[in-house]
Design a protein that fits this description.
- This protein has 19 helices and no strands.
- The protein is an all-alpha fold and 434 residues long.
- Helix 2 (19-45) runs parallel beside helix 7 (144-152), helix 4 crosses helix 11 and helix 5 (98-123) packs parallel to helix 8 (156-171).
Length: 434
């Protein structure tokens, strides 16, 4: 009987004894099951939007030396838009049949996202035993950006891994490898191009050697192997330069969809460009030596601005803002306020606001939530930095930076310039006797 009890004790689940353990025990199974549901059920089931099919067809055409850039841009179906260098990298997916290839692509994206999240934890000095790990895993796989990346089966999970690897290696001053990480993403799509401002202002010039060299080399290899490389230049590039009015959360996209006058669209873009410029100046002027804060906050500002102010911004691009969102663990983070998280809800939430009862209002909320989320995020970041600057200037401590006063280390007391008085003889003898 005693031996049976001892054996059963080995099977007994551990009981959380601290809030930290309780949260970990509660969230890990929920997070893991959420990942499995997104991958095995939602992603495998797929959706009417299929980003993988045109990529597979293009890869198959490339392997068989047939024209690749034949998309009819009069239709709103997903088109193949990758350059020849991206086609070369994607070509192996067409070696096997489409269904198994799609499943493997979903798996590759899932693994890439999980690795990227682990690197993100390490970037902030956290590990798998911290409560941030299951929270981060659950939150990311519950978001629209990760869910639709897997369901639509596009390459954004691998791009996220390239971004996080780029930032980690940049912080470690592994410049050439940092350039490799981001250069591979450039070969497929230039969505991370604004991040090159980081090595530029930090003087890490070697990053540019591999960041620009890799896509150029891959293009040089792919060009003679392609049946129609010039059609990418003459047919696809003009389309990429246009600002479409569907599936576009940029200011210009939603502005055209709702029929805003051109002057109003340009005015809105000008206002937010000014906010971005102000934020970048304050970040560079006062935070460039606080490397982690500077890198993750600046990267978030640059990417959000490129989608909101550029010609095309889609909600699932928001995955690339995970480093900025994760910066909430920093004491001086710009994300430690409720408006910032209202913005995060706008561009990360999987909630649909389409309503059968409130049709027009629901459609507007659904189509505008990403645009409003990105806009609010830029407003919040500028507002936090500007208030810090004004406060520090008023208090006369700009030389110490613009972090809130409660985060500053207390100043050491200024030593007195007056000579110490020697103790009186009676006091000395009293001390000696005691």
């Amino acid at each position: 009987m005693y031996r049976a009890v001892v054996f059963l004790r080995h099977l007994e689940p551990r009981t959380g004894r601290t809030p930290h353990e309780v949260i970990n025990f509660a969230l890990w199974p929920i997070a893991v099951m959420t990942v499995l549901h997104r991958v095995v059920v939602k992603a495998v089931n797929g959706y009417i939007t299929d980003d993988f099919r045109p990529v597979y067809n293009a890869a198959l055409a490339f392997l068989n030396r047939r024209p690749v850039y034949t998309a009819n841009f009069d239709w709103v179906d997903p088109h193949y838009l990758y350059p020849p260098s991206g086609t070369l990298l994607m070509a192996p997916i067409a070696i096997i049949d489409p269904e198994k290839s799609r499943w493997l692509f979903i798996l590759a994206n899932t693994i890439a996202i999980v690795i990227a999240l682990y690197l993100l934890l390490r970037l902030f000095g956290l590990g798998l035993n911290s409560i941030a790990a299951p929270i981060l895993l659950f939150a990311t796989f519950s978001s629209e950006t990760v869910t639709n990346t897997l369901v639509f089966t596009n390459i954004n999970g691998l791009v996220l891994l390239g971004e996080i690897a780029f930032l980690v290696l940049l912080m470690k001053r592994r410049d050439m490898w940092s350039g490799v990480a981001i250069g591979l993403t450039f070969a497929v799509k230039p969505i991370l191009a604004p991040l090159l401002l980081l090595p530029l202002v930090r003087g890490q010039w070697k990053v540019f050697v591999t960041a620009l060299g890799i896509p150029l080399v891959l293009t040089a290899v792919a060009w003679p192997l392609s049946a129609d490389p010039m059609d990418f230049v003459h047919h696809t590039v003009p389309y990429l330069m246009e600002s479409r009015d569907y599936f576009n959360s940029a200011i210009v996209g939603n502005g055209r969809y709702y029929g805003l006058p051109t002057w109003m669209i340009f005015t809105l873009r000008g206002i937010f460009a000014a906010l971005v410029a102000g934020s970048l100046w304050l970040l560079y002027r006062y935070y460039r030596h606080d490397e982690l804060f500077f890198v993750v906050t600046t990267s978030g500002v640059l990417l959000t601005a490129s989608w909101l102010l550029g010609s095309l911004g889609q909600m699932y691009y928001s995955m690339m803002l995970f480093p900025l969102v994760m910066s909430v663990v920093l004491k001086n983070s710009v994300m430690r306020n409720w408006p910032a998280w209202l913005a995060v809800y706008g561009f990360l939430s999987y909630d649909s606001w389409l309503s059968g009862r409130f049709v027009e209002a629901g459609r507007t909320a659904e189509y505008m939530k990403t645009t409003l989320g990105w806009s609010l995020l830029l407003i919040v970041i500028f507002g936090v930095l500007a208030v810090r600057y004004v406060t520090a200037k008023r208090e006369g401590r700009l030389d110490q930076g613009i972090d809130p006063a409660f985060l500053l280390e207390p100043r050491p007391k200024t030593p007195s310039t007056e000579p110490e008085l020697a103790p009186e003889p009676e006091a000395e003898s009293a001390v000696a006797k005691s």
